[in-house]
Amino acid sequence: MVGSVDPKGPAPAGSVGEVLQLFDRWGKDPYDEELSQLDHALQTAALAVADGASDELVAAALLHDVGHLLELAARDGRGELPTTDSGHESVGARYLTGLFGPGVTGPIALHVRAKRYRCAVDTDYLSGLSEGSRRSLELQGGPADATERASFEANPIHGDAVRLRAWDDGGKRRDLRVPALEHYREMLERLARGHSPVGS
Ligand code: FE
Ligand code: FE
Q1: E strand segments, the chain
Q2: Residue 64 near residue 72 (C-beta atoms within 8 A)
Q3: Can you give the pLDDT of all 200 residues of the chain as single tens digits?
Q4: Ligand nearest to the CA of 61
Q5: How many CB atoms sit inside 10 A of residue 72's CB?
Q6: Are 133 and 142 in contact (CB under 8 A)?
Q7: DSSP H or E run through 46
């Protein structure tokens, strides 16, 4: 059941329908002052499509913050926002390993590291972050240090993670008209059908 989450994190997703249900139930929750979680996911995905991204990267863009929805589900929408970094990127990526391969889950797992990396290598990027994103940067450990930068660059999918990050940063507008969640269902089902979960 979507609402029951143990302290180690939720069990891997069992179906695309289950993931989309999370958006139905929690997507209206605010992402920031102006946007809902669902708006942010749909905008990020639409920017990925506009940039010619592969289906796997579009799925990653759409689902990159599913960890936040899982956190909302875990506390049934009650309580304050976390004051420590909750690791939503790893929670979300782990959850999605039930359905998708590393082409989807990898960039999701790295999307916070990609932000910390960009902040370290590009001061314009840092100053252009949204207010909420700058606030969470502190909780996430601030700009990457030299060791973190090197290990990020050594990761073969770091380029995809940086692309996802750019759509993520762009997907925070009030005026973007984008396709609805349902638009992506068939593609997600197709990707999930082509994936054999580890151990099966
Ligand atoms: Fe995020
Ligand atoms: Fe995001």
Answers
A1: none
A2: no
A3: 444 445 567 899 999 999 999 999 999 998 877 899 999 999 999 999 999 999 999 999 999 999 999 999 988 867 665 555 679 999 999 999 999 999 999 999 999 999 999 999 999 999 999 888 888 898 899 999 999 999 999 999 999 999 999 999 999 998 889 999 999 999 999 999 998 765 55
A4: 2
A5: 19
A6: no
A7: helix 37-50
Question: Which ligand places an atom closest to the C-alpha of 86?
Answer: 1
List the domains of the chain with CATH numbers.
Answer: 16-188 (1.10.3210.10)
pTM of the model: 0.91
Distance 138 CA to ligand 1 centre (A): 14
Q: What is the CA(99)–ligand 2 centre distance, in A? A: 20
State how far the Cα of 196 lies from the Cα of 199, in Å rounded to an integer: 8
Distance in Å, CA 153 to ligand 1 centroid: 20
